[in-house]
Recover the amino acids of this structure.
């Protein structure tokens, strides 16, 4: 069945289905709650979902970050991201991220950071953020990565990167 990738509609049905995907993929409530809280605070700057047979099967969210030096609100944090367990490892996550990064580039965002598996996010061009003198607050090491969406997209950014306050409620 073909996959439809689209922006979520501002209706409770889409949000409820998105929350189901996160609960199932992470096996806990934290990320679903995080999505709800980012919606409530309107820090869901950019989102995409994937739909199959009329059902939401994957979702990715980008929210604002604060950068210690050089912040211009043109960089976003990627999280959370989830694909429904039965459909993982079929390229859905890859398709969703590629589409999202393209849309953010077109919207003139400069960069994206992510805390995740380097082997997975490396395929999209993410590299350790430490090489740009950027550090996360979680001690993520090489798992904290950055991607420039345009030439010099990361230039001028330096220092500690803080995710939106809602992330403080995540247990790990
Ligand atoms: C991580 C996740 C979003 C990837 O989406 P996906 O649709 O399964 O991934 P894709 O099919 O696009 O890519 C699959 C490839 O990515 C890699 N991969 C998938 N999940 C991975 C993971 N958790 N860690 C490392 N690599 C992973 C594999 O190498 C796989 O390649 P293979 O099929 O050759 O083995 C999805 O597995 C998921 O929802 N996991 C649970 C929640 C989670 O961990 N979210 C990420 C938080 S940053």
């Amino acid at each position: 069945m073909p996959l439809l990738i689209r922006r979520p509609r501002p209706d409770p049905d889409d949000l409820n289905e998105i929350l189901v995907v996160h609960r199932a993929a992470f096996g806990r409530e934290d990320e679903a709650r995080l999505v709800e809280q980012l919606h409530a605070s309107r820090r869901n700057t950019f989102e995409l979902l994937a739909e199959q047979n009329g059902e939401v099967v994957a979702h990715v969210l980008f929210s604002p970050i604060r950068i210690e030096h050089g912040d211009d609100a043109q960089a976003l944090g990627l999280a959370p991201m989830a694909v429904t367990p039965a459909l993982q490892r079929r390229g859905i996550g890859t398709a969703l991220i590629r589409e999202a990064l393209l849309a953010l580039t077109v919207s003139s965002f400069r960069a994206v950071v992510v805390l995740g598996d380097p082997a997975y996010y490396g395929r999209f061009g993410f590299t350790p953020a430490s090489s740009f003198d950027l550090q996360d607050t979680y001690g993520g090491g090489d798992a904290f990565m950055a991607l420039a969406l345009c030439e010099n997209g990361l230039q001028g950014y330096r220092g500690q990167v803080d995710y939106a306050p809602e992330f403080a409620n995540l247990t790990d």
